[in-house]
Design brief:
Blueprint (H helix, E strand, L loop, with lengths): L20 H16 L5 H5 L2 H11 L6 H19 L4 E11 L19 E11 L4 E10 L11 H6 L8 H13 L6 E5 L6 H10 L2 E5 L12 H6 L5 E7 L10 E15 L12 E11 L7 E6 L6 H12 L2 H13 L10 H27 L11 H12 L11 H11 L13 H17 L5
Parallel strand pairs: 1-4, 4-5
Antiparallel strand pairs: 1-2, 2-3, 5-9, 6-7, 7-8, 8-9
Helix pairs in contact: 4-11, 6-7, 10-11, 10-14, 11-13, 12-13, 13-14
Length: 456
Amino acid sequence: MEKNYKKNWETEFYGLEFKDKRLKKRFFQVMEAISASPDKSVLCAAGTRTSAKAAYRLFAKEEITMETLLKSISKATVEKLRQMNTERILLLQDTTSISFGNRKGIDGMGYYCDSEQKGMMVHSCIAVTEGGLPVGLIHQEALTRKKRKNSTATKEEKKARPVEEKEGFRWMNTLRQANNLIPDEIEHVTVCDREGDFFELFADAQKLGEKFLVRLTQNRLTKEGGKIFDNLKALPVQGTMMVQVARNSKEHTPSRKAVMEIRWEKQNIKKPARRKEKTLPDTLPLTAIYVRESGKKDGLSWFLLTNNEVKNWEDAEREIRCYAQRWKIERFHFVLKSGCKIEEKQSRSYECLKLLTLLYSVIALQILNLTYLGRLCPDLPAELFFEDWEWKVLYCAARKTKTLPSEPYCIQDVIYDLASLGGRKGAPSDGIPGVKSLWEGMLKLYTLLEYREFIV
């Protein structure tokens, strides 16, 4: 299972220690193997059935727990943030469903939707710089339903339940975990999509002193008697800005630039009438921002809510650009499910599949980090990420040459050469290499590296 190329896994699992020192070495060997073939099964990645069995025995050990590994992964991300000394950090939260189809033999695995499909919901929080560079995982939790989704309760009955009894509590729990993990000197903002639109989250963030930026789905009442959406729409346009709209593969729409009209105003958000808890404040003073695509009746439209100070146009523009980075967690899920093929992994245990999801999440974020690093910091030397002989193999294989470059080989060159190995044709219309061609190129590179010593 052990390869000839080595990654410093200490940087990804900060302070990870076991009573048996051999266990740590074995764990890192397994990580090395599965990261070299993230799209393959554990059996194929391990190389032999004996090695695969050894890997699963490792995952079953009492010391190898979600809590232990997640703690070290989170610490590793925070340590990276300390060293980066960067601008505001965005903590992107979102949930994705992991389906295991009709597999019946997974001990403890329940349902993730109202069908007979087995699976789980995985809620993750990743740290991304304000400039858009994915750094690492902050928190992750999974849940599976013993029964299919309850469709008998009314919408109002579901809303009236205490937030701790709802599946949506994971949003609040993740915010609390981030509050415990990230030191105050690192400026950070929790960013959520419309699933994070609930009053208890806003109140909890205010109480903890955590900053948040949430896309609204509910036209909430204000203390003055109006509603947020109506109040914002009545305002004059306070400015316009250009936003890069990401490609939507589901609707087959390409990436494009859009001119957005901006309106914003401080609003006193009223506590919902169904919430009777005395611990919740009656109102919260928050800033609402209305973003609407100019000149298009059915164009993009966002209503954002934040407890960040928005005093002027520059502040409003900054919040909008921060929310636009939320797309990075969608790309993370794409790599995890399509690149690492997490839904195809095999195990007889729900607990083991949760553990595998966590480990492959670390690998998915490495791929995502390399992708965007090549765009944001193209001149960084390749030696920061690859051993000398590794990048030389990449260069020669991608360019079909035996002559090494005379000029410094940088991370931008790495990205384009990996994409070339991954099947990118390099047509003028191709644009910057995407994450898919990058991971496919990395798989081919790992294969070349593995068999290099046998090639004369």
